[in-house]
Amino acid sequence: MRMLYLHKPSADILARFVEQQGKLDFNYFAVGATAATPPSGYTVDRTRIELGNGEEVFDAAKLALLNWQQFSLGWVDVWSAETPLEVGQVVAIMGQAVGLWWLNACRIVYTIDESGPIRSFGFAYGTLPGHVESGEERFLVEWDQSSDRVTYEILAFSKPNHILTRLGYPLVRRSQKRFGRDSATSMYRAVNEAPGIPEVYQNTELMSQVPG
């Protein structure tokens, strides 16, 4: 099934895409590695923003993730936003670039819901063959009760999985960075009524290939 469209794919196209991709395995080997150490040979991106303070902000951030609001960006969208955060669930991620809509498939690898001095909630999904990249991405909100601060973080490792993403990798990298910033902004707006956005922290590292 094709992955590039002149217009945003319809619900029928997306439903067929998700059904077909759901029958396939991941297109990378280090499934679940965002919970530990990203594998060698991938570019690793980290994005982090402080959302506010207290349990109310944490609960609002949890609800935002449950509703996939980190993808409510206009130029990026998810189908379906009603997909529950459960291991094995498959979603279609759409992104618009160079006048085209790029269609990608991901499956939820694991979920996070932890209590304690630091309360955590989130999930990670991994790429399927119908994705222009290969790798994994984790979305996490945390409430550090010692400082009362609530944060949102994205951790991803990826590398190209399509000839166009290899040829246009500088554009891909700009889009990935933009997604991190816009996703952080969307989460902040989802849990705050006050105007203004705090600084978004981003860094990138290349996990060097281990010889042999």
UniProtKB/TrEMBL annotation:
It holds the Pfam family DUF1990. Residues 28-184 form the DUF1990 domain. InterPro entries: DUF1990, UCP010260. This is DUF1990 domain-containing protein. Transmembrane segments: none annotated.
